[in-house]
Design goal:
Layout (H helix, E strand, L loop, with lengths): L6 H10 L1 H4 L8 H12 L21 H6 L3 E6 L4 H17 L3 E8 L4 H7 L4 E4 L11 H23 L3 E4 L5 H10 L4 E5 L6 H6 L5 E4 L13 E3 L15 H8 L7 E5 L6 H16 L3 E5 L2 H10 L8 E4 L5 H7 L2 E4 L3 H10 L3 E3 L9 H10 L5 E2 L5 H13 L2 H12 L6 H14 L1
Parallel strand pairs: 1-2, 1-4, 2-3, 4-5, 5-6, 6-7, 8-9, 8-11, 9-10, 11-12, 12-13
Helix pairs in contact: 5-18, 7-8, 10-13, 11-16
């Protein structure tokens, strides 16, 4: 009897047996067979298993034109959080700057934020019915095999019709099916691993793809050494150009130039720990006349807005999502942030003193590993998530008035940036097209 020893074996067993699972030869109790086949094949699942183009969100581009054109074609797959989406968009923009005769199609996960952010950036996107496999037994895991099968089926359809020259994975749920299918068809593939500890999807795909772009040294522990290219993480162009934006930023946020400003960013989806710590510390911060730019994420936004009503002197700006991050960085004196790879890459480029609170709710505790790469270089302060409510506000206040420590952190973090990461990655992608 076949034994599934770990998640990786399960993934490959599943995708190698997908045709058997959905065929009439599927073995199992009749009621389970019927229920699962109905789930997978029902015409009512049109949002989950759709023909190519029907889930492509309008970005001003005609997907049929993309399919029929003779231009270079690239698929960028992945998403789930801003840490995957915005670097992916930055890569797409960099490719189009270098090569005009090109069409780019994104592939993401239905219901995730890429389905909104990518079309807003001017690119079409296809959605797969896919989500993560929980590392504990949950009801959601029961549908996981059928999400994989659905996504691989649709990935084949997308690739067969769009006919990409290269397929890129930036991390996130949609990367796995797309790169698996592309590699199996012999299409050149590249993954961009943002973290110091790779995610499960990229670990699984590493042996199958052609190139692996990484942001940290020492990644040969996880990936084939001959495929690794040290590129750093791609960062949005506007964030790389904040030097002369302080005056505009002060006006945009309605802030006073002679007051200290604290930027709080708990990731694109928000951080409950950071949000609650800031909410509980508002009185302390207000008494010190500290101005705040606070990105809460959607789930905490209303509570945060309500919490600032008692502070009439203003200076507290609350957003569910900050669209003008270049202005937010330009005007801030220090930053409080989660330790996602994209956030850290941005902080290195903007050279801001930072207090990092790594999320404990990520695979293999990779945010702590990301943060420690800075801490070991005396380039950041780390506070554990469990200690944030007690330590965060006092640490932030102390740092704001400690000019010597701020200068030290700022100087050291600036040494860790790679400023042309996105151009390096774009060129590596285009070299795969020309092979």
């Amino acid at each position: 009897m076949f034994k599934i020893n770990n998640i990786s074996n399960f993934f490959f067993w599943l995708i190698n047996h997908e045709r058997i699972i959905v065929s009439s030869s599927f073995v199992g109790p009749a009621c389970i067979k019927k229920a699962y086949l109905n789930l997978f094949l029902s015409s009512n699942q049109s949002q989950r298993i759709a023909s190519f183009g029907s889930n492509t969100l309008n970005s001003g581009l005609n997907v049929t034109d993309l399919i029929n054109s003779n231009r270079i074609k690239i698929i960028i797959s992945g998403g789930g959080t801003g840490g995957h989406i915005f670097p992916a968009i930055a890569i797409a923009n960099a490719i189009k700057k270098i090569e005009k005769n090109i069409d780019i199609l994104f592939v993401g996960a239905l219901g995730k934020m890429e389905m909104e952010k990518v079309p807003a950036a001017g690119y079409p996107i296809e959605g797969l019915w896919i989500s993560g496999l929980q590392r504990r037994l949950t009801m959601d895991n029961l549908s996981f095999p059928f999400k994989i099968i659905s996504s691989i089926t649709k990935a084949r359809k997308i690739i067969n019709e769009f006919k990409p020259d290269v397929v890129i994975g930036v991390g996130g749920y949609a990367s796995g099916p797309m790169l698996y299918v592309a590699a199996k068809k012999g299409i050149p593939t590249l993954i961009q691993e943002q973290n110091s500890f790779p995610g499960l999807t990229n670990k699984i795909l590493a042996k199958r793809v052609d190139k692996i772009c990484v942001a940290y040294n020492g990644m040969e522990k996880y990936f084939p050494k001959e495929k690794i290219i040290l590129t750093g993480n791609p960062v949005r162009q506007d964030i790389q150009e904040i030097a002369n934006k302080r005056e505009q930023a002060l006006e945009f946020f309605g802030l006073h130039k002679n007051k200290k400003t604290l930027l709080v960013i708990g990731g694109s989806l928000g951080s409950l720990t950071i949000n609650q710590s800031i909410k509980n510390g508002l009185d302390k911060l207000n008494k010190k006349s500290i101005q705040i730019i606070w990105q809460t994420g959607k789930s905490f936004y209303n509570e945060a807005k309500e919490s600032i009503n008692n502070f009439e002197n203003g200076g507290i700006n609350v957003y569910d999502f900050i669209n003008k991050m270049d202005y937010a960085y330009a005007v801030s004196d220090i930053v409080i942030s989660r330790a996602g790879a994209s956030a850290i890459s941005e902080l290195c480029l903007v050279e801001k003193p930072v207090i990092l609170i790594p999320s404990p709710n990520v695979a293999e505790d990779h945010q702590t590993k990301n943060a420690m790469a800075l801490v070991h270089n005396e380039a950041a302060i780390l506070i554990k998530d469990i200690e944030a409510n007690q330590k965060l506000i006092d640490t932030a206040i102390d740092l704001l008035w400690n000019e010597e420590l701020k200068d030290k952190l700022q100087n050291n973090i600036s040494k860790l940036s790679i400023r042309n990461s996105v151009d390096i990655i774009a060129n590596e992608i285009l070299m795969l097209v020309k092979k």
